[in-house]
């Protein structure tokens, strides 16, 4: 019997900031999917269908600055069909509808907390929680989401000389997938000494927004280089990790839909999610 993609929406409360933010969940289900429009995108999902299987690994996917969870729908759907629960928070103050906190120290503090709160909410949800392995979390992050993943896994960011950014490590995080990560806040030698989980580091050959040196920081500062699997995507750009956009959105002025000449984003996204899934399969804590 085939597995399909179920979906569920949560509203997560951040008492520290007195606000709430949405989280979209995708997970395996046996209920046949239907085409559902979400904004400009069409997703094959079964809304509010029951979860199939368990205990399942929870993966939190942190979007880039000023972006949206739905631009990672390809990888999220693939992981859900493969038996993972994917939680995609919309970071308050740093998303496509609200950039009021983008490029602020407050955003550097807030983003890792959003991930921790998302894990708490998913694990305590009456429908989703009973199917989860709450102590074996993976975090996928693109660009600023890569910063977020490193920070929640034990990274110690700095906003400038003498300006330590206070973040809290979440010991439930057991693996990271970093896609073109923004890492400039981890420039000091001990900034990543407490990041000891396996990492899949994926960088784009022609990335002008988070150039190669930012990925190199991870390689240089992680205490155990053997924990990092490096993948360089030839001819890719910073936005090549985003799901292919509908034709009407592929305009010359819309940078997220643009790639270096000759790069086939559709073909890349037929293989890339499998690479991520295989890494998550390898790094998953053995079930008791």
Q: Uncertain runs with pLDDT below 50, 5 residues or more?
A: none
Cα(first) to Cα(last) distance is: 26 Å
- SSE topology string: EEEEEHEHEHEEEEHEH
Report on the biggest sheet.
Answer: 10 strands, mixed
Mean pLDDT over all positions: 96
By oligomeric state, this entry counts as single chain
- Beta percentage is 25-35%
Q: What would CATH call the homologous superfamily?
A: Alpha/Beta hydrolase fold, catalytic domain
Tell me the number of strands. 12
Could you characterize what this model shows?
It is a single chain. With 288 residues, the chain is α/β, with parallel strands linked by helices. The chain has helices spanning 73-81, 105-124, 144-152, 212-221, 265-283; strands spanning 4-14, 19-29, 34-38, 41-47, 56-62, 85-89, 132-142, 158-160, 163-164, 173-179, 199-204, 228-233. It has five helices and twelve strands. The two termini are 26 Å apart. The longest helix has 20 residues, at 105-124. The model has no long low-confidence stretch (mean pLDDT 96). The chain has one domain (4-283): Alpha/Beta hydrolase fold, catalytic domain (Rossmann fold). Helices cover 23% and strands 28% of the residues. The chain is globular, with a radius of gyration of 18 Å. A ten-stranded mixed sheet has the order 3-4-1-2-6-5-7-10-11-12, with helices on both faces. The chain has a two-stranded antiparallel ribbon with strand order 8-9.
